[in-house]
Amino acid sequence: MDISFLTPLAIVAIVIFSVALSLRALKKKASPSNPAFDPESSSYDNVILLVKVPRDSGEEEELKTAPLAAEQMFSSLHGLLRITPEIQEHISFEVFSTGDTFSKGERGIFFYVTTPKSVRDFVESQIYAQYPDAQIDEVEDYLSTIKPGGTMTGAYISTEKEDFFPIKTFRDFEVDPLSAVTGAMSKVNNDGCIWIQYLLCPLADGWQDEGHQYVDIVREGKKKSTFSLSAFAGEVITGVVDLLASIPQAIINPPEQYSSGKPLVKDPLPPRLSAGKELALKSLENKLSKMGFRTVVRVGSCAGTKEKAENQLRSVIATFKQYSISDLNGFTGGIYPPSINEFVDECRERSLPKNHAFILSTEEIASIFHFPSSTVETPAISWTKAKHGEPPLNLPTSDCTFLGKTTFRNQLVKFGIKDCDRARHTYLIGKTGTGKSTLFKNMIYQDIINGKGVGVLDPHGNLIDELLELIPDNRIKDVVIFDPSDADRPVSLNMLECPDQAQKNLMASGLVDVFKKHFGYSWGPRLEYLLNNCILTLLEIPNTTLLGITRLLSDDNYQKYIVYQIKDPMMRDFWTKEFIAMKGNQKLITEAIAPIQNKVGRFLSSSTIRNIVGQAKSSIRIDEVMDQGKIFLVNLSKGRIGEDNANLLGSMIVSRIAFMAMQRVNLPEDQRKDFFLFVDEFQNFASGSFASILSEARKYHLCLHLTHQYTAQLPEEMMAAVSGNVGTIASFSLGAPDATILEPEFAPFFTENDLISLEMYHMYIKLMIDGQTSVPFSAVSLPPPDQNTGNKDKVMALSREVYGHDVAEVEDRIKGWIEKRFDLGQAIRDAHARGEVPREIPKITTVQPTVQEENAIEE
């Protein structure tokens, strides 16, 4: 029996079966139960992230770098696609622009990402993967301050054609398309704001099927140049009906080709497509080859008046026309919601309404949204101020003095520096008000609480006042306050008090360096020679002070008194011969003697200073302060004692501390207690010997912590000494010249621009860790301690009582010394009283001895 006529029946059955499957699949694809098509639910707990990227991403950056990074980011985020029938999460990428008045001075264009908390870490990781220098902060919703009303408007943006038709992508632009969008948003009114939300929900493969069918139809030569699902379904149904109607006729009178076994007529060859049509199909196929997201784009606008709000909205919506391609796809002008209040609620909830959704590929999404790069020159964009750097893995987080918290990718890890590494010294630099003193205050407070020896030189006085509020009960007796402005009970600190005569040359050298720094241009070799001999001479005589320098040069009788007592033959020879010759030379008087009398005399002319350094016995023993681990607070407020006096006095104290530290050479290493010295604005107190102090202090457990504002404050050789000898370097925000100088210290991790752009209390730091300097990383200093103990008055009263003297008594003693007649006879009597063997009387001048001198000689 010939059954060839049944072939049409088989064809019909296959067609019907295929159509049924297709319609079932289409129904399932459009079903609300599919999570990709029902993302309206906003039940997840969202978190809003403010994302900032650095503006300068490198000189070799190309136009397409930022969109390419975004495309890769979106491809990774597609991994959030759920297989289970649970509600599919969606993410919102947003751009917000605000005016000055509306934002209370924080005008700018900001980029946000709103994500469910459950996937926050993954989203952040993918942003960092493509934008490693990004700064991501969790913030409050910027829409929370916007109240719906008559001054608001908004619209949804939609595509013109079916989803599989592509829009123009960043690969076809000569200028970053984001520039047009941000440019329009930058024109926001001062009293308004405008925002764009790009809501994205990942789609499973299958959305491309319609596009592939369209490509097949065009390539097969059908005249239809457009395609829609409804039209395609209609054609299929019509064909099935016609085919079913022809079955009875085919059975009764089968076509000749079936009955005769002749082959069917071959299909015609596919048509030859134009170059433009072929290019369009390639663009379409490119979209179909990528992953897709169900996408909703909406724009909201708020301003002082309805008209302003609508103008802002239209300007931004108009920029989306740049993505249109003839014969393919583009964006419509905007679909206005029936209720602006509901629209704002949807914006706040980040809901994704399916009736406004369309499908975009990862490349298309990266074209309409990506984080900005240097190619986007819109001035109002909020860039990250400075890069954040990754901390070392061996960062000390316990058993250390805490410095701050790391800031890399918002991993705020509290870290510090070990005591053994503090011995290599710490150096801070930064503009005024950037956080240097706050960091010092935290470190000092920890040292005080931990019972360590600490010294603080404060040229302003504020830091000392704040520290006095923090002294705990158990350390009240350890506090030693050096405050020159306390005129009623001056302390005494004799700079010529030398416990070991073998070290007098070292002490003299330090004092000469101090004076040299402050003499300025009047300094010369003869002056230095003369001043050094004056100091060496006085150091040999007990109970002498700095007051003796000017008197030694001007009072012949006092000179006789001193020279008789010195044992150094070279010094005796200098005063009896060389100095006499100098006094006979007017030029030497002008170049050497007069400057010493002028500079030192001016310093000692202040009663405040004179009452401190003019007392023969020191009430503050620096060596005891260091060895007993006391708290030495030096208040050198320039506003109270004058800048020159404060600087000179501070330099002397630093020199004396260094000298006393070096006296520990005779102590075993394990008996040398750490003493942590903090010097604010240290350039004011850094004499020429400071370089040697930096290199030598570590051996004697004197740990220096230095800070100042800019490099020009230091001589070049001093700056080199700091760089070469300091273990830990931290930089707060710098000026441009300093950033250029210090950039090599932090390169290649941070640039000159980063050093300039640091925010307040933020720093870059190279930390000494177990004797090795770490790579630079970013950090923020800790908040200042606020544990006010209320002991300030008690501490000050006790320190004044122990270390101060009644001013009347001090002035009487100094007055008595000034009025006392010192001469050779007095020197002989003093030596006789001490039981010393009479010495040869030096012939200092040709002047005949006085009657008193002759009587003393005879005795």
TrEMBL record:
Its main location: membrane. Gene3D superfamilies: P-loop containing nucleotide triphosphate hydrolases. Keywords: Cell membrane, Membrane, Transmembrane, Transmembrane helix. Signal peptide: none annotated. Pfam families: DUF8128 (PF26449), TrwB_AAD_bind (PF10412). It is a multi-pass membrane protein. Residues 70-384 form the DUF8128 domain. GO terms for cellular component: plasma membrane. It is found in: Cell membrane. The keyword Acyltransferase does not apply. Residues 423-716 form the Type IV secretion system coupling protein TraD DNA-binding domain. This is Uncharacterized protein. It comes from candidate division WWE3 bacterium CG08_land_8_20_14_0_20_41_15.
